[in-house]
Each structure stands twice: as C-alpha cells, then as structure tokens.
Design goal:
The protein is about 40% helix and about 15% strand. It is an alpha+beta fold and about 300 residues long.
C-alpha cells in the first residue's frame, strides 16, 4: 500500500468483484477472508436517518482508491515526460556548444644514430627528438650510464617512428667490449695514424732464457760474460748460445740490468766473507776464472765499496 492510499478501519466490506459477498479489510490491506453479504436491514425511519457508515462507503472506498491510483500515475507520467524532454534538450545544447577537437596525430620522427655513444649520450639524443628510451643488456643493470657503450638500437637508426614511441637501446659494459664487438667509430680525418711499435717475437726457449736470467740476477751479482756462461753451461741451464744471447740483449734493451751495479753487488758479496785488498778484489772481479767483469766495471765497484 502506498503512502497516499487512505487508511480505513478494519472490518467487512462489500466485495465489488464478487456481488453478494463481503471481504475483510485488516486496516492495511484486503485479505483472502470472504463471507456472504448479510441481508439488507430496514431503511431507517425519519428524514435525518442515515445508513450505516460501512454501507455508505462500500462502493465509494474501492472507487476512490482506484481513482487515486489513476490520478497519481498520470501526474507521475507527466512529470517524468517533462524531465525527459528537459534532459534531452539540455544534452543537445551541451553537444552543440562543445568545442570541436582537432585531430592531432603524433608527428613522425627518425631514430637518431647512437651506436658507439655512451648510454648517457644516447639517452639525451633520443629524448631530444621526442622519443622514449629503454636500455637492454645481456647481463648486468644499466646504472652508471657513462660506463655502457651502445651497440645498436631497435628500431634501427634512420627508421621513421611516431613521437612518444620507445626505442630499445642495446648496450654492453665498456670494459667488456672486445675489439671485434666494439662498434666502429669514425676517427677525425685530420688525426694522424700512429703505428704501434712491433713487439719482438720470441720462441719458447728464448722466453725461458729470459726468465732464468732474471732469476740469477735476483740472487747474486753477475757480469755479462758470467751470466751467459751460467745460462749455456751444461752444469747450468744448458740453453743454446743464441737463446742465451737473446735473453741478455733483451734485458739490456729494456733497462732491466746494470752491469756496474752487478759488479758492486759482487764486490760486497766477496767482502762479506773475507778481507780483500784493492788489487786482490780487482783480480777476483776481472779474472776469467772469477766474475769476468770488465776493468771499468771492476773499478766502479771498488770505488763504490771504498777501496
């Protein structure tokens, strides 16, 4: 029952849908209880006599309820229709007054050439033309972008893309680049080409002779002749003469041996074991059965030890 439906006292009322019967009204709604209508009572006497209230309202109540519902439905439809028409008109006006939006499609740009640049330089160059950057590496994380070198990009350099698209930059740590994998970088045309000095190629025997010579010199003072004898002697290392000569010459060319200092070291070694006169120590340092230093080298050593 709606809020606008009149409320009547509970009781029996004539059922308009079933003539000759009454239906019980519980004060809020019609129930399923019915009964035969009682015989009509004699009409009241007197000019002011009125019929019982339930008899006067038996027909009026259902008709009034029905009429009220019809009127309410009509008013609701009218109000709803008015609001709908108003809303449609408002929407139409809003669409008509909305400004037209121009079709602004992203502009086309070309992917710049970034191979050979650092990741930091490549990022700045790509973002400068309105593109996004994403780094890709086989291993590691691209954190310090100054230490990463660009190998290539996807899309490749020169490809036409739209502003705002993402370019994947393939990088590798600069320290891990091999000469074959490093991207070619064009050198300035004015830069002079400097030829690297050629390193002398050596055989395994020559390399071994150099290591042995260094080992002998680290333990005692040797003259040039004495070191060659030690390297070639059958009681020493047994190297071939040319390999021993190569090793000694290599040490001399790289400044890894000073024969005067070797003579000083040999003289000090002799004086640690016994006393020598100047002439006696000179003979020992220069003798072919001794250390085989040259006279100049022996005199340098004697002066150095105070003889």
């Amino acid at each position: 029952m709606s809020e606008n439906t009149p409320i009547y006292p509970a009781g029996w009322y004539a059922d308009v849908n079933a003539p000759g019967t009454e239906r019980f009204y519980d004060g809020t709604a019609w129930t399923e209880q019915t009964r035969p209508m009682k015989p009509a009572e004699p009409a009241p006497k007197g000019p002011n006599a009125k019929a019982a209230w339930y008899k006067r309202k038996a027909i009026v109540i259902p008709v009034a309820i029905l009429a009220g519902l019809i009127v309410m439905g009509s008013v609701g439809s009218a109000l709803g229709g008015g609001r709908g028409a108003s809303n449609v008109a408002s929407d139409t006006e809003a669409v008509a007054s909305a400004p037209a939006v121009e079709d602004a499609s992203p502009a086309a740009v070309n992917v710049p050439e970034v191979a050979g640049l650092t990741a930091k330089e490549a990022e700045a160059l790509i973002e400068n033309v309105g593109l996004e950057v994403e780094f890709s590496a086989d291993k590691g994380f691209v954190v310090d972008r100054d230490n990463w070198t660009v190998l290539s990009s996807t899309p490749a350099a020169g490809a036409s893309v739209k502003t705002g698209d993402t370019v994947v930059v393939n990088v590798q740590k600069t320290a891990e680049l091999s000469p074959s994998s490093a991207p070619e970088a064009s050198a300035p045309s004015s830069a002079p080409v400097v030829a690297e000095p050629q390193k002398p190629s050596m055989t395994t025997a020559q390399s071994s002779a150099i290591r042995s010579a260094k080992s002998y010199l680290s333990f005692a003072g040797f003259s040039r002749a004495g070191l060659l004898e030690q390297l070639t002697s059958e009681y020493g290392e047994g190297f071939a003469g040319e390999d021993a000569e190569f090793a000694v010459a290599q040490l001399e060319s790289t400044g890894e041996v000073d024969w005067n200092q070797e003579a000083v070291e040999s003289a000090k070694s002799y004086l640690e074991f016994q006393g020598f006169s100047r002439d006696g120590l000179y003979d020992q340092l220069t003798s072919e059965y001794g250390e085989q230093f040259t006279p100049d080298q022996a005199n340098f050593a004697l002066s150095a030890v105070g003889l």
